[in-house]
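Recap from last week: sequence in, structure out.
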Amino acid sequence: MTREHHGTESGLSPTEEIVHRCFSIRYEDIPEPARRRAHELVRDTVGVVLGSTTTTESSSIARDFITATYGSGPATVAGAAEGTSAPAAAFANATIAHGIELDDTHSGASIHPGAVIIPTVLAVGEREGTTGRDALVATVAGYELMIRISRAADPAALYARGFHPTSCCGVFGAALSASMLMECSLEEAVNAVGIAGSFSAGNLEYLTDGTLSKRIQPGIAAQAGVTSAELAARGYTGPKTILEGDHGFLQGYSDKSDVDRLSTSIDDDYEYEITRTGIKPHACCRYNQTPIDAVLQLQDQHGFTAEEVESIDIGLVGAAMVLVGEPAVDKKHPKTTTDAQFSVHYSVAIALREGRAFVEQYREPLLSDEDVLDLARRVTASHAEDLEQYYPDNFPAAATVRTRDGEEFTTSLQTCRGDPANPLSREELTEKYEELARRFLDEKSLTELDQLLRSLEQVDDVSVIGSYLRG
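Predicted structure tokens:
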């Protein structure tokens, strides 16, 4: 990236231009489909947080760390009786939101925006006494910036360098959302995004041994985004070319970045990036979602059982192979929940045997179940170059299942269930939310919170939402 890219026709830097564009979003600007999707994603993320709060080791550790380390404050930490500061709450809740791999995803950017942006909005919103309407606007704006930055960086290129796009790009969106809720000036918002570049971090080394560090990375992004806004509001400054500069994010983190993608309009029916964001039905990496759908579809169509399967071949795009397909020897025998969530071999095997791939399917005793592992060993994953034409705006996969009596069944899917092009039904969204929320709430509280989330624009103070998350 060269200096000729540092200016735009408006006289603003590309960083300033995209921050101005997102910061200037008003409720009236947001079309009904985007508002509706924002409601669905806030509800989905809150459900995921509730489902992860007391059932996941990483969530308990994050909550214990925050309550032991930070002082009291107005912002809720899910599962804790006492509140804490907004940056600390954002960290804890974003970590919790990522704890069971059911948080929302944006295919074109290959990120989990909800795990970063929504905990940020709720934490800052509680402190500021934010209305639900303003929280919704800040959510739409944060998604927009975070997603456009990942698109500009090229998510496959970020993966190739070992970066985790959700964390690396999420810090910028969190900084913007926090700035909006804090009623910062436009100049302060630009500074907040500039400062956020110093916090941009997150890597894929967790794939090596299935450790918990992946789940903490959205938390780091959320906390750092709030911190960046706090500093900017006090007069701290950051570079106005943090995205496109010669030493900025796009140049430093990607070999294939394109600054023009920050502001490029995409010719489709979606006016805001939030409406391109999908909701997961399966508790694993997004790259496993379509393979699971493919084998379950074949099973439904042809009626074979897991015991009748001789072998399964899965075709993936290159970026998916990096995350869920290789090295095969490790993917065929995951040692931890994280390992399993990032193994296409285990994921399609457990889905065929159990009929689903939800939270419990990625835990003991199934993790060490020999029948499951035997089927996983008979799964092969390979790069299918013909699928690249659909990526990254879709997450395609192909599947071929061979049975022991010699039958062979094949299918290829352009994208997975839950993607905007193949959305979950209202009933499926409700089923997911309620199944997760019941792990923390009684029926009365579940119903009350659901009503609040469905009518977010009418909420006078988002602290009422936080009250249902406290332990």
